[in-house]
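Possible regression after last week's pipeline update?

I re-ran a chain I had predicted before the update to compare outputs. Posting the input and the new output here so someone can diff against the archived version. Not blocking, just want to make sure nothing changed silently.
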Amino acid sequence: MSLVLYNTLTRCKEPFVPLVKGQAKIYVCGPTVYDYCHVGHARCYIAFDVLVRYLKALGYAVTYVRNLTDLDDKIIQRANEQGLSFLELAETYIRAFHEDMDALGLLRPDQEPRAAEHIDRMVADIKGLVERGYAYLGGSDVFYEVSRFADYGRLSGRDLTELRAGARVEVDPNKKNPLDFVLWKKSKPGEPAWPSPWGEGRPGWHLECSAMSSHYLGAAFDIHGGGHDLIFPHHENEIAQAVPLGRGFARTWLHNGFVQINHQKMSKSLKNFFTIREVLARFHPEALRLFVLSKQYRGPVDFSDEALGEMGKGLDRAYRTLKQVRDLAGPAGKAEDFPEAAEAVGRFHEAMDDDLNTARALGHLFEAVRALNRLLDEGRAGKTELGSLRAWAGAVEAMGRVLGLLVRDPEAYLAERQEAALSDSDLTPAAIEARIAERAQARDEKRWADADRIRGELQARGIVLEDAGGRTRWRLES
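New output (post-update):
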């Protein structure tokens, strides 16, 4: 099976066939940088990070472009409120965005263009649309004339007549049609402005991505992605702007579903959101990543602390298993060295080939972790070859790399988790080891009740003791 992706434009799954064999060119709409990013942003950018990782795993040379909207009404308003320039405010939140994405383990894009640095490109596109009769001057602004583009509404599946009848937009006497949207707007006093044939002003938001994507990826490219809320009007308008200029634009359109709170979309406008950094203050970054990937990218996912907690437990178990393999058998090997491990990776790829079904792919990943645990039990008893342990560990790590999971050193991960869990406790590793020593002495003296009491006291504090090979190890309960 080869990779198939659900194309929003055609409303069906299609085999991924790039414009240039062996290459994949991807554009994803980035954030508007006026505030900290929330978990909904994490869902979007993790989803497309996995797409990039998987295409690379399949051998494609990937060019990944993700823009930054550093010029927007919200940015200008907040900057004015704080007595900053719009670029100063934007820079603050660009740094925060990069910190959040790095914490979540996202690969950096190959290009990350900023809107304010591409005004000349946008002005040139507006000129082209005016010359071709798709745009007009209305008052001091330039508008796109939606009725001139016959395919308007194709991406979103909306009928132009119905849109016009139900248009809930502020009436603008300068528009020919309520659906027409602004390409160039006259700047108000105190707002940033650039020169143009239509006077001092700035471009409309929809123009940014259609101009920058074609600049970095060419007149036609393979995949355009973003959140489901961008289908209309943003992506619909991008197509309407690009096609009249002779661009093939994006062949495949991918859109991720929402993160929900109580079955309602998480968003800043509804004030029901959690920022990424708020969540990462309480949960490990990979737990949030695992939570996001626990559902296929197109569907909704319901956020809760309970769900994040369960994800953390699953990660702890997987990392603990990988550490035990290293302790017993050394570093991971190649999955293809053991047929059953290779088959597990094959099933994982089948799930990923089916429109990046990460939910099913994770099932195969954790099945492999369970297989490793069974082999570990046999290995300790000398009933299995260490080569098979290494091969299965290699399978787990190979699957994890595609998803951006289990990519840390297991010992370092577990130590980090241990330190975080003990930070709010009066227990220290030294204190735990002292209690274990007390228990060992009680066992040597056959004071079994005292030994059981110590184990029980530690268990009540979340400390699990494991007796094996003549020694006692301890770990924190997930």
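Follow-up from reviewer: compared with the archived run. The longest strand covers residues 220-227. Marking as no regression found.
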